[in-house]
Structures are given as C-alpha cells and as structure tokens.
C-alpha cells in the first residue's frame, strides 16, 4: 500500500513534543495535517494532503525534536516473511511511475526503532539489508558504489511483517542511521556531559563552520562548569577556558595550564572582554537560562554560544518555543539560532546561537 507521509525519528518518550512541533510548523508552512504516533515508539508520522511539498517546505535543520526526517512513500503491512522484497520493489516501481521519487538511489539503510519494542528487530534489519541490497542493484534501483549525492533509500521495520519505505534527501537529513551520532566516552573526560558538547559541535555546526569557528587559542567561558565535561571538550579543541562554578573541577583540567577556575555564580559573572565562545549547561529554569544567554549576546560578551535548556515535565514543546522566542527577542539583534534535542541529551534541548 502506497501512502505518503512525513516520517521522523525522535527520542523515545518525546513523541508528543515532536508531534506538536510538526503540527505547528506544518500549519505555518501551509500544509496542515495530523500526527500519528504512540508514546515510547521513538517515531512520529505526519500525514497531510501533500507530504512531498511539506517535506520540501520544512527543512530538517529547523526541527528540534526530530533526529531524522524522511518522506515515507509506502506503508507495507502483513508482509510474508518468505518474501518481503517483492512488495518493496513493487512500491518503488509504483512511486517512480507516479513521479514521486527518483529511480536510482545512492545508498540503502534498513532501520528499526530505537525503542524497547524496536531493538529486537536489529538482527532482521541487518540480514534483510544484505539480502535487499544486491536485488536493488540488479533492478537498477541502487548504485553499485555508495553515492551520497543521490537520494537515500530507507526501509524501516516496525514489526517483522510491517515495514515502511522512505526516502531521504541527503542534503536535508541526518547523516547517521536513526539520526544518532554515536560517540564514545573518552576515558579522560570528567563526565558524560562531554558527549553532549561534542555532539553539539558535530551536529549544530557544519564542516566549514567547525574549521572556522573552533580553533586553537580561542578564548572561552564555561558557566556552571563543574566537574568540567564541557571545559574538557573546549580545551581538547585548543581553547583557553575560564571555568565558572563554585564546585570543584577535575585536577587534570587545572594541571593543563589552559583552564582558569573561578569560584563564582555563572548567572552573575561577566568577562572583562569579548570571548570567542561561551557555553552553559547549568541546571536552572529554562526561561532564566534563556534570558542570561540573551544578555551575553546583547552585551557582546561572546561571539557565539552553545547552551542547554532543561525542559519541564509537561508542555515541553510549548516551553521550548516560548524560551527560544524570549531568547531571540531579548538579544535585540538578528541571530543565527539552531536548536535540537541531541542523542546525548535527556530532558533538555541544546541551542547554538551567534549574531548574523
């Protein structure tokens, strides 16, 4: 059965937030519809009259609670385990004949939900990818060598007899399976929070920006630094860091010669001159953090910032939208703002911002 919809992966448990975000953004884009999901599933499907047009109108970079954005072209139920490939080929033929999708793909990903219910499907996804890939090449649907310049084909198993077929524009989608940047915890990192900043630099900046904006001997501040996970990431990238926290830092950071520890309140301290970076992962009400971050950019205390907003238990999309609007309004200048709930985040989102 061919059925077009927007399909997005998200963190399990945050389906309502993503559904609310998609509904609001789709309405603003002129493509109203409705979301279909189940709490804990790890994904949301958004149905509207023209999902392909919505996919084009809603860039992946603007989505906060989505790990990945795909155009779903087929919803295949009741698959025969003896032959799951034939229905997929038929769905591709039907969509290509209708002009909805390209005829040739540069890569195939077979995925399953990153949820308790979906993880047992990992073995099926791996084996099926190995079986489907040569068949697609023989049928002229998949290049013989991976070609990232072409659209990517996704087959998603929700159950053993239920699969979705979807398409990704690689210029407008996550480059990682399931939208997850899987990073390894470095043994020298003071805390697992280091992974959040590493992922933020990898996800919220492009290659050119990382080369230009993350350089040796830049001056940075880390507000609420203890025990030093984010300070460690900045230091590893060659920066000189002022770590602001009344709590202790790991001794190895102080021994590096690149870190100054100030025992002060991160909400009160301000630098004597403009810094290249300010980062903040303080546990505080998100509106209060947003206001303080706006002050830093408005007063010119830093050239750019990455900070986290800890979300409440309820109305998390609404709080996210309100806090980001507050932040942009109180900065009093045009901004580049990117926000996302990262894989290594929990009840929070991560924001990158700099003046235009």
TrEMBL record:
Chain's gene name:
rlmM
Q: EC number(s) for this protein?
A: 2.1.1.186
Task: Indicate the family of this protein.
Answer: Belongs to the class I-like SAM-binding methyltransferase superfamily. RNA methyltransferase RlmE family. RlmM subfamily.
- Per the record, the coiled-coil ranges are none
Provide the residue positions that the database annotates as binding S-adenosyl-L-methionine: 193, 226-229, 245, 265, 281
Origin, by domain of life? Bacteria
Q: Which residues form the Ribosomal RNA large subunit methyltransferase M THUMP-like domain?
A: 83-167
Keywords assigned: Cytoplasm, Methyltransferase, rRNA processing, S-adenosyl-L-methionine, Transferase
Catalytic-site annotation from UniProt: 310 (proton acceptor)
**Example GO molecular function term?**
S-adenosylmethionine-dependent methyltransferase activity
Q: Name one GO biological process term.
A: methylation
Question: What is the main EC category here?
Answer: transferase
Ranges where the Ribosomal RNA methyltransferase FtsJ domain occurs: 191-284
> Which PANTHER family does the entry link to?
RIBOSOMAL RNA LARGE SUBUNIT METHYLTRANSFERASE M, RIBOSOMAL RNA METHYLTRANSFERASE FTSJ DOMAIN-CONTAINING PROTEIN
- Tagged with keyword S-adenosyl-L-methionine: yes
Q: Which residues form the RlmM ferredoxin-like domain?
A: 5-70
The record's section on Pfam families has: FtsJ, RlmM_FDX, RLMM_N
Q: What is the protein name stated in its UniProt record?
A: Ribosomal RNA large subunit methyltransferase M
Q: What GO cellular component entries does it have?
A: cytoplasm
Q: What does this protein's UniProt record list under function? A: Catalyzes the 2'-O-methylation at nucleotide C2498 in 23S rRNA.
Q: Where in the cell is it found?
A: Cytoplasm
Which catalysed reactions does the entry list for this protein? cytidine(2498) in 23S rRNA + S-adenosyl-L-methionine = 2'-O-methylcytidine(2498) in 23S rRNA + S-adenosyl-L-homocysteine + H(+)
Subunit composition?
Answer: Monomer.
């Amino acid at each position: 059965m061919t059925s077009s919809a927007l399909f997005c992966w998200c963190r399990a448990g945050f389906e309502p937030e993503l559904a609310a975000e998609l509904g609001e953004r789709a309405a603003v884009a002129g493509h109203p519809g409705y979301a279909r999901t189940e709490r804990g599933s790890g994904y949301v499907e958004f149905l509207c009259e023209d999902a392909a047009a919505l996919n084009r109108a809603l860039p992946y970079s603007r989505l906060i609670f989505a790990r990945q954005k795909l155009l779903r072209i087929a919803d295949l139920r009741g698959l025969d385990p003896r032959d799951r490939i034939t229905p997929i080929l038929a769905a591709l033929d039907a969509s290509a004949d209708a002009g909805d999708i390209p005829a040739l793909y540069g890569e195939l990903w077979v995925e399953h939900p990153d949820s308790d219910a979906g993880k047992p499907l990992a073995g099926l996804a791996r084996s099926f990818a190995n079986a489907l890939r040569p068949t697609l090449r023989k049928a002229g649907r998949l290049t013989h060598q991976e070609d990232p310049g072409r659209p990517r084909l996704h087959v998603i198993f929700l159950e053993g007899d239920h699969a979705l077929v979807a398409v990704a524009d690689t210029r407008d989608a996550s480059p990682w399976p399931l939208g997850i940047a899987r990073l390894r915890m470095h043994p020298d990192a003071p805390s697992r929070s280091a992974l959040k900043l590493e992922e933020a630099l990898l996800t919220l900046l492009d290659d050119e920006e990382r080369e230009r904006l993350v350089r040796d001997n830049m001056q940075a501040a880390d507000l609420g630094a203890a025990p030093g996970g984010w300070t460690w990431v900045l230091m590893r990238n060659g920066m000189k860091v002022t770590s602001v926290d009344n709590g202790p830092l790991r001794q190895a950071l102080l021994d590096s010669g690149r870190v100054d520890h100030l025992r002060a309140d991160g909400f009160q301290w301000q630098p004597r001159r403009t810094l290249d970076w300010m980062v903040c992962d303080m546990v505080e009400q998100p509106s209060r953090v947003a206001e303080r971050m706006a002050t830093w950019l408005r007063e010119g205390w830093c050239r750019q910032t990455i900070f986290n907003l800890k979300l409440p238990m309820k109305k998390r999309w609404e709080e996210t939208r309100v806090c980001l609007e507050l932040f942009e309004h109180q900065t009093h200048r045009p901004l580049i703002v990117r926000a996302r709930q990262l894989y290594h985040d929990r009840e929070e989102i991560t924001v990158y911002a700099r003046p235009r």
